[in-house]
Amino acid sequence: MxxxxxxxxxxxxLILFVGLLMLMVPLYLTFTAATxxxxxxxxxxxxxxxGDQLFVNIAEAWTRSDFSQKxxxxxxxxxxxxxxxxxxxxxxxxxxxxxxxxxxxxxxxxVFITLMLPLEVRIVPTYAVAAxxxxxxxxxxxxxxxxxxIAWISGVEVHLEWNLLNxxxxxxxxxxxxxxxxxxxxxxxxxxxDELVEAAQMDGAGPVRFLIEHLVPLSRTNIAALAxxxxxxxxxxYLWPLLVVTDPSYGVVAVELGHxxxxxxxxxxxxxxxxxxxxGTLIVMVPPVLVVIFMQRWFVRGxxxxxx
Amino acid sequence: MxxxxxxxxxxxxxxVAPQLLIIFVFFYWPTSQAIYWAFTLEQPWGGGNEWxxxxxxxxxxxDSQYWDSVRVSVIYAIATTALAMGMAxxxxxxxxxxxxxxxxxxxxxxxxxxxxxPAVGLSFRFIFNPxxxxxxxxxxxxxxxxxxxxxxxxxxFMVIVAGxxxxxxxxxxxxxxxxxxxxxxxxxxxxxxxxxVLRRMWDLQLPLMAPTFFFLLVINITDSFxxxxxxxxxxxxxxxxxxxxxxxxxxxxxxxxGLDYSGAAAQSIILMLLVIALTFFQxxxxxxxxxxx
Amino acid sequence: xNTRALSAAVALLALxxxxxxxxxxxxEYWYGLSGDLGExxxxxxxxxxxxxxxxxxxxxxxxxYAQAVQNTIAAFRAGKHPTIVQAYDAGTxxxxxxxxxxxxxxxxxxxxxxxxxxxxxxxxxxxYASSKGELFSMPFNSSTAVMYYNADDLKSIGMDTPPATWExxxxxxxxxxxxxxxxxxxxxxxxxxxLEQFSMAHNVPVASNNNGYDGLDSKILYNxxxxxxxxxxIKRWLDEGLLQIxxxxxxxxxxxxxxxxxxxxxxxxxxxxxxxSKTAKEGMNWSVTMLPVYxxxxxxxxxxxxxxxxxxSKKTEPEYRGAAAYLKFLATPESEEYWSTVTGYIPVTKKxxxxxxxxxxxxxxxxxxxxxxxxxxxxxxxxxxxxxIRLGGFIQIRAExxxxxxxxxxxxxxxxxxLDTAAQRSDxxxxxxxxxYKGKSFP
Lengths: 308, 293, 443
Known about the structure:
Shape of chain A: flat
Number of helices of chain C: 19
Number of strands of chain C: 10
Structural class of chain A: mainly alpha
CATH superfamily of the domain at 70-235 in chain A: MetI-like
Low-confidence stretches of chain A: 303-308
Largest sheet of chain C: 5 strands, mixed
Strand content of chain A: under 5%
Helix content of chain A: 55-70%
Shape of chain C: globular
Number of strands of chain A: 0
Largest sheet of chain A: none
Largest interface: A-B, 116 and 111 residues
CATH class of the domain at 70-235 in chain A: Mainly Alpha
Distance between the termini of chain A: 21 Å
Radius of gyration of chain A: 25 Å
Oligomer: heterotrimer
Radius of gyration of chain C: 23 Å
Mean pLDDT of chain A: 84
Structural class of chain C: alpha/beta
Number of helices of chain A: 16
């Protein structure tokens, strides 16, 4: 920055380089496996150097998986989740940090607990909700006797149904319902000095204007980080799309990739075609990596607020 | 804590309502059904169940193998969190110095997060392969030293490294974001005062990153309890002899592969209570030390 | 509140898929096979759709047997399940007790589709039938366990034929070891081979009540049979360096170790035959033989593995008609031949097998040797102990066995003690299962 620190600079480069190396090894192995034939992959001892089959494998993986349509779907899914999370989480965090009400902590915990039980273990009842997202309300109406009341008054039997299977909404909504974003925003919002709030109030800014005009610009890097992570997270979602989508026109890339990954014979798999699975991994990885590179431009040191 | 608040609480209500609605429908409603199963013996295909009270819990808590699973999960959570956050913090602090080529490092260090899980699993299998992988060189030098197929501790080590690897990029990106939110003027002022780079990291950057640090601590610990299924499934399938049978893996294995929905529900509740307790503990004792502004 | 208006509005909001054309009857089929085998299943669907114009089958891959069953259950409970599901042996006990299926034999009869059930190999059809002999599910991808051997290695120690008994097998391992082979036998603890197929071939019980067929109050018996001696032998062979453990988790599985010529023997499903053909080191001579049996015992038939196709309840009549047409299509000799050619699975009907045999299918590589699986499956008529295993919580029971054996192989406890513990824990699983389905019994 200002001072000259030649030795420390060398150390810095060294640390970063070693870190990069360690993080890159699995990536390199993925790439290598994608350039080999099936026979070469199962060789003993295994090959460490790339072969010449990369484009053959990629072409094969591409045709097998009908990726083109799935890329569009995955993009819609990931963008939907990112948008939903970035906005909803900011709103929720705003509502529990900048207002003084008794429900602040209970609401925070209510949101937070959703992190503690992964989808894998509640997949059966969650599917039931996706098959009809209004089930809970129907149950409430039934349990409170309201539905009978309505039936008695209007003569219409209440039957609420909103099927989310095979739809983008069904893919996106359940993935939006987690707490990571809310927690991150909360942590950042808590560091906003009181003076800023007071100054805004003095200017006559209401809460909504404060959120949009002051908080959002300040949260830029955090939003970028959250968006990056969430994009990759939803891009790689596998279990949920596999379950709620049976219509191929709503399929996503991660599920197609899953079809390429071999299982063992006893669990219903065939030949271990790792070369195709790895080539598929490379194809599937391209958009998230582009997003990472694109998001870089938002990772700039905050220039505003310099004298606070 | 904060002194300045906005007054109109109805706006706050509108702000939190959408998220609460979504989590009610897609989390609390389904979860409440799973909780009900924990107190019954549920037939997977529907067809009814029998109320058994705390029987499912009693069975679990008196099973020494279940406690082994809890123990392994705690070790895994602490070790992966420490490894991943330590590495990520160091890398972020140095990457933030913005020396030549830092953009390259930045992309390179976040990139691994984009690799799909099966590829990660296969790569690590290859790295740790005792007879032909990268780790086989250890066995060339010291025959029999590395044996994750038979030795439970080795297998656990392997799972921990792979789990931590997955989390490094995640933590790195948030640490970096936190560092970038520190105003440049503050750092410059410190430099003017004559404090060196390392001094500034310690005195200025670390304290200012505390809220993010806390965020990552909680998220990493929670994640390592709840999101470790894939790693275990591809690397060790819980073995050898249950040495890497993490709680969440056991739930999936018993409950959903094994179709014991009630047992799985009871295990889920115990897992959830454990993570809630740990999180509560962190909020109570760690967050206190954080100064937010 | 007008419900129809509400759901219509909501449907618009949901961007849900509009299914416009309703000329053909559509029905769904969820399968577990993954990777290239999944592709092959998809091809059978395409061929069916191309072969007729009345029905359209939509085949959805679920990446693995366990996932296929689990996802089907989730969908079933929400009333959105497929008409046909491919389910594996360990997932069917619950399905049988729930009664939520349409027995295929009954369905075919109800829709006047003529199937010659006697044509199916009894070792296969018995496995998927009620105790009264009514077929519940359609046999589809079928296999059994065999021993793969490297003929070159055997020749190098002067043997022309593979060992037929475990005693000979041990002697062979010793000779191979002495001749400098570092890995005579690539082993991974697999209950399907070491416990289930072993017990069938020796006609010893795995559990009481004729392996669970006769009631839910069954108890594990494998810790009291010849099985214990066999597992103690395995442990001894490990200690003596006669076998090496090779698992996918260790980096290279037994199959690859064998195919690369590193190890001389490995035991697994005949379905792997196709893979070994494709990945075997060039010029390597190898084949398969029946699993060895112990001297002084009488060899019995082994049992079918793989999966079968179940038709689920609560679907409409047109969908059942479609399902019946598809199953009928799969049962044609042409389909059977196609399936046995593109995969390593064996034909399930006598005619299908005979047809292939007459064509000389089994005479040359890469299919030569696959007939051994049928020889093993049909070695004797299935008896009360060899028709299969019908236990609830079978996944956990297999896991108990595997973990116990791993602990014993690592030297943490003696094999007998490990098997006793596993048996006792499995009994608890069985008791819990019986209580869940109180008052019910296998049909």
